[in-house]
Amino acid sequence: MAFGSRKAGGPPTEAIGRLARVPLCVLPTPLVEAQRLSEALGGPRILLKRDDLTGRSAGGNKLRKLEFLLADAIERGCDTVITCGAAQSNHAAQTAVACANLGLDCVLVLWAPMRQGTVGNLLIDDLAGAKVVFVDKSSGTTREQAMEAEALRPAGRKPYIVGVGGSCGLGSVGYALAFDEILGQCEELGIAPTAVVAACGSGGTVGGLLAGAAAAAPGVRVVGIDVDADPDLLGDTLRCARECAEVLGTPSPMEAPDDLLVQGYVGPGYGRPSREGREAIMLALRTEGIVLDPIYTGKAMAGLIGMVRAGAFGPSDTVVFVHTGGLPGLFAIGEDLLAV
Ligand SMILES: *Cc1c(COP(=O)(O)O)cnc(C)c1O
């Protein structure tokens, strides 16, 4: 669906027409009713936006951002993409697969002292042919410095650096469009969504959704469940939203809504499973048959459940929960998840 094909103040089609984009996703992803989950919670109507089914690698949200970021890389004549993440980074694996798909070389700077096994996303990184470099946090090198160092390495190659999570104004465009896609699907179903909820890790996804809402439906509440516990996350999310609006030439979300980020669901820390997350994964699986992950979507679902229990949504609310993917991570820490 073309962004801007909608009547009500949607961003102009021209804005999106100006941006280079490579097709990596199979769109639209399904939007499905989660009636049994909603009944189990005694809560609002809940719909699931299946961005775990974006159509490359094991699916996931980063592919929507990479459609714009990798198009930019190609447009600039770059042939080697460098990005970073945790050892089990979904973003890194989706970048590796997308690069392989587009004939670009890929270097992944992974934030871990050394390789520990080849499971989950690491297996995908290797099979896709990415060069994987491990950098120890205690080395005193920042992720940015480590990526810059890699950028200097390949002689005769032209590097393109994608920042953490692909979270920046251009990457977030993918999620401003996803917001529009959700609105269009709801319209077809005769549904008026009142809130869109997603996991928030580096801010680009929720930032893009916020920019999409500011442009086309400011009344729809955008909620990010913080899965990272970085004090800069709110600022990063808002920056992504504003830069995204600037790229699109659409109204900017001026102030962060007070309740943009919901805290309290990180559990023992980023990348480590929580008990509430495991319970949320089990509930979603047993009611809807969907598989969430322990690092992002399970915790985001725990957040949604907590909000419903705290009365944050009334019976007349319709909540769209964005399933942002993460499946490989589940298989990387299965034992820890069951033990938590
Ligand atoms: C990266 C990621 C997120 C968070 O998205 P950000 O744009 O980084 O906030 C959520 N869910 C999954 C599965 C992810 O891999």
**SSE topology string:** HEHEHEHEHEHEHEHEHEHHEHH
Strand order of the largest sheet: 1-2-10-7-8-9
Terminus-to-terminus distance: 42 Å
What general form does the structure show? globular
Hey, roughly how much beta strand do the residues contain?
Answer: 5-15%
Task: Provide an overview of this structure.
There is one protein chain. The chain has 340 residues and is α/β, with parallel strands linked by helices. The chain has 2 domains: 220 residues, Rossmann fold, CATH 3.40.50.1100; 105 residues, Rossmann fold (3-Layer(aba) Sandwich), CATH 3.40.50. The protein is 43% helix and 15% strand. The strands form 2 sheets. Strands 1-2-10-7-8-9 form a 6-stranded mixed sheet, with helices on both faces. The longest helix has 21 residues. The radius of gyration is 19 Å and the shape is globular. The site of pyridoxal-5'-phosphate (PLP) has 20 residues, from helix 4, strand 7 and helix 8.
What's this, in brief?
The protein has 340 residues and is α/β, with parallel strands linked by helices. The chain contains 13 helices and ten strands. It has two domains: 220 residues, 3-Layer(aba) Sandwich (Rossmann fold), CATH 3.40.50; 105 residues, Rossmann fold.
Search tags:
Rossmann fold; 2 domains; 13 helices; binds pyridoxal-5'-phosphate
Describe the SSE topology.
Blueprint: H1 13-18, E1 31-33, H2 35-41, E2 45-50, H3 62-75, E3 80-85, H4 90-102, E4 105-111, H5 120-127, E5 131-135, H6 143-152, E6 159-161, H7 169-189, E7 195-200, H8 204-216, E8 221-226, H9 233-248, E9 261-262, H10 275-288, H11 297-309, E10 318-323, H12 327-332, H13 334-339
Parallel strand pairs: 2-10, 3-4, 3-6, 4-5, 7-8, 7-10, 8-9
Antiparallel strand pairs: 1-2
Pyridoxal-5'-phosphate is lined by residues 60-61, 90-91, 165, 167, 199-206, 293, 296-297, 324-326.
